[in-house]
Amino acid sequence: MGNLLRQRLQAEGFAFQNIGLDYAGPIQCAVRQGRGCKLVKVYIAIFVCFATKSIHLELVGDLTSKTFIMALKRFISRRGKPINIYSDNGTSFVGAANELSKFLKTNCSALSEEMAQEGINFNFIPAYSPHFAGLAEAGVKSTKHHLIRVLGLCNLTYEELYTTLVQIEAILLQTTDPPVIEP
């Protein structure tokens, strides 16, 4: 068995400082309820903390870099800015990393210099080796396990699916919290 990343062994700092990232899906989502409703494909962005193994779920509409950057902004607003993001070589992840680095290189304002100093490092695992992102893949498996049991064969609307994902996230967070032992 190979050595673990140093970031996975360090418990110092805050949660979601070093994260694994992956997508799950596609999931059929109804535009509205009722007969003859149109179905669209949506995806789940799964952020996994290396230190605590906590999971954060974001519902995204497609696999473009733009929607990933918006999901990343929502993640940062709720959980704080990560230092390192480890992901597979998905085109949306690579595109987002390129867009962020291009933005930081071209804009020389004080804000972009500060972001360059405290920037987010995107690290990509080797191609065709999903076992390198084991925590993220385990997060996908856990999320799909609960999602399949909730959904079954029904198609939820976007709001219903988002609410379901938040509830699944709460369930998965309860399983990662260690029990409090009082002396």
TrEMBL record:
**Gene encoding the protein:** LOC114242720
Which segments of the protein form a coiled coil according to its record?
none
InterPro entries under this entry? Answer: Integrase_cat-core, RNaseH-like_sf, RNaseH_sf
> What are the Integrase catalytic domain coordinates in residue numbering?
8-183
Q: What lineage, starting at the top, does this entry show?
A: Eukaryota, Metazoa, Ecdysozoa, Arthropoda, Hexapoda
State what protein this is by name: Uncharacterized protein LOC114242720
**Single GO MF descriptor:** nucleic acid binding
Tell me one GO biological process term. Answer: DNA integration
| PROSITE patterns tied to this protein | INTEGRASE (PS50994)
